[in-house]
UniProtKB/TrEMBL annotation:
Annotated Gene Ontology cellular component terms: plasma membrane
Listed InterPro entries: PMP-22/EMP/MP20-like (IPR050579), PMP22/EMP/MP20/Claudin (IPR004031), PMP22_EMP_MP20 (IPR004032)
Pfam families: PMP22_Claudin
The name this protein goes by in its record: Epithelial membrane protein 3
């Protein structure tokens, strides 16, 4: 049982880190490695100075929806972890981690909705940027999709996990 508890805790921390990286890093859409776009900025690499030049992304309704859903996913997962730690030390023997599991499942569903919206509406989100056919989805987008099943599985594991002495 201790191994299962350690596994679930480690899985939770890994997915929380992946969610945070997917939300904050600059690689949801990439053009030739010299220009990329994320949820917050459009950046271009300047060869003369060797630095990234970034400007705020144009706020569209779809982009704002993705931003809100990804931030909510991080918040749900963080609350879930804090509640889990609290329940671990205060819950009576035999108790189930329902609230922790539900928060984690909600985190998975909000990440799913955000990634799905970005997938279906990336043309509207990136409307002022370069031609989309010369670009591709970046690693943060892939991280967001990878988090979805991990969050859902860990949420279900929390729901079935019982506290033992």
């Amino acid at each position: 049982m201790a191994y299962l508890l350690m596994f679930v805790t480690l899985l939770h921390l890994i997915t929380l880190a992946m969610l945070f990286i997917a939300t904050m890093e600059k690689s949801w859409w990439v053009w030739d490695g010299m220009e990329n776009s994320d949820l917050w900025y459009n950046c271009r690499f300047d060869n003369d100075t060797g630095t990234w030049l970034c400007a705020s992304s144009k706020e569209t309704e779809w982009l704002q929806a993705v931003q809100v859903l990804m931030v909510l996913s991080v918040v749900f997962s963080s609350v879930s972890f804090l509640v889990f730690l609290g329940q671990l030390f205060t819950m009576s023997k035999g108790g189930l981690f329902y609230f922790t599991g539900l928060c984690q499942v909600f985190a998975g569903l909000t990440a799913f909705a955000a990634a799905l919206i970005y997938t279906l509406h990336n043309q509207e989100i990136l409307q002022d940027s370069r031609e989309l056919s010369s670009g591709h989805f970046g690693y943060c987008y892939i991280l967001a999709w990878t988090c979805v099943p991990l969050l859902l599985v860990s949420g279900l594991m929390y729901i079935h996990l019982r506290k033992k002495e």
